Amino acid sequence: MASSILHGKMSQKEDDEAEKCLHRTDLYIEVPSTCMPIVYSPDYNITFMGLEKLHPFDAGKWGKVIHFLKEEQFITEGNLVEAREATDEDLLVVHTKQYLRKLKWSLVVATITEIPPLLFLPNFLVQRKVLRPLRTQTGGTIMAGKLAIDRGWAINVGGGFHHCSSDKGGGFCAYADVTLAIKFLFERVEGISMATIIDLDAHQGNGHERDFLEDRRVFIMDVYNRYIYPGDGYAKRAIKRKVELDWGTEDSEYLQKVELHSEGALNEVRPDIIIYNAGTDILDGDPLGGLAISPQGIVKRDEIVFRAARRRGIPILMVTSGGYQKKTARIIADSILNLQRQGLIGDDQGTGLADGSTFQKVITLHAMKSDDQNSK
User: Fold this and answer.
1) Which of 39, 165, 219, 250 has the smallest CB count inside 10 Å?
2) What is the DSSP letter of 320?
3) Distance CA 48, CA 312 (A)
4) Which residues belong to the active site?
């Protein structure tokens, strides 16, 4: 316990020192009030001579989600927030220089993305066709973190690379976007000192768990199939609410557990921001997830999490993470549309003010109360 407290203090001290010498970033930009806090770029999608088809992940699903949302007239080209690529300086907020250098080897990228033929390609092509889309999605998650604070909610249509930590990638995750979004907020946004990660992808989120293993400022709830990748026992020590599921878990049991533990986690610790990793690989028939949740169950799951956040007035950032079937894009779009129908997202949600000042005041008041409690 003493080492945990010590590390928590050290992490805070590191962030305080970082604030004094913050690098210049293009990711924390002013977004017009006419834009929805939904982040996307066509550069998210990976298309490269069909090699992307060698992985079960639908490497074009993000564009399909946007297509469906446009069809339903929920968004237009003009009111989306276009994601920007995270630079090396942005990535170094979390990643080690040694790790970023490793990504200049095609063999390393082939291993991380689980696309073996990449090892035969020149690295400049791998950078342009595979890693650049992932860096852009990573930039999108960081941008959406700030948007969530300003507007009360935000969705990055990509991201959720929860298997990547500061010095190691895996499971199609080359950059630690969840960790980066939180670190950026801690360092750059006044009053943000506590975060909760609700990870509902079918796989354990071992990347962000390793990054925040000893950091008391980050509360992690993880619900996953206990029998599948990555089975990272060391990283599990970071999970404050661990819900391990069996093969073939269905809607009724799953939704009951999600609601019980989401409510419990937010009652246990009230964060300044929720990062919601909304993987759709829990869908029945997913080749890697091993669960049996229906499309309607996924839509209901997202509603449960957003409702818990909105009821408490806590900003929420959603990333889409895993999902390995062609129909997952339609389900993600349907879920976002349902959130709007339920009044949980939309133009009238969040701040009530275009500049986000209402939510910022709530956060500041909460931070003052936390300081008062800590001083007693």
Assistant:
1) 250
2) -
3) 44
4) 163
